[in-house]
Known about the structure:
Elements (H helix, E strand, L loop, with lengths): L1 E11 L2 E12 L2 E6 L5 H9 L7 E6 L5 H7 E4 L13 H11 L6 H10 L15 H13 L6 E5 L12 H9 L3 E6 L1 H5 L6 E2 L9 E2 L7
Protein name: Energy-coupling factor transporter ATP-binding protein EcfA2
InterPro entries: AAA+_ATPase, ABC_transporter-like_ATP-bd, P-loop_NTPase
Pfam families: ABC_tran (PF00005)
Amino acid sequence: MEIRAERVGVNGPHGPLLQPTSLRVRGGEIALVTGEPGPGHTTLALTLAGRLRPSSGSVTLNGRTDAAVLRKHVALVDAPDVNEPEDGLKLSNAIAEELLHAGLPSNRNAVRKWLQTQGADIYAGERVEHVPAAVRTRLLVELAASRPGVQALMIDTPDRHTSDPGTWWPHALRQAEQGLAVVVFCSPASASALPLPAARLGHDDQPDPMPVLSGEPQ
């Protein structure tokens, strides 16, 4: 699969939410998008996932414009004010909701067993904001990737939880190694610490994403 954004811009009721931005990523590749704090990261993630209509430009999946197909195959991960776990929610409850979205058993026993397989059962009763950032991101990425039909992940600003890219970059890489198309949104400071040129919000440059699979990307 290939997702391509060509000069995608989005206007809000009070002005631009996203200035024209271009990006491309295929299965087995990871792309990095950077920009200053603001609505641009989440706006682009929503648009690439078919959940927001661009005001200008286009988003295509395998050369076709089809928002419904994008929604089926692209998952948002921990997007602020969209699908991040609510403040004060226990991790076990947040995991139950995500398992439900993935079409998997979500009762208390199922949640406990899933957390055990992830080595995270000790955090089951913790509020999500108190779970270590590396654990939080890993669990939410794994759950999003397990949803039926998902072929791409939009991982939204994991660096807002920690300044250390080493706590989330390996989890993004792992999903690309599994064959998914992965886009990670982060701050310029985080992007500068990673071994990959970043696409920039509000710019038309399209740095090549990083292929992380042997052989041809899907």
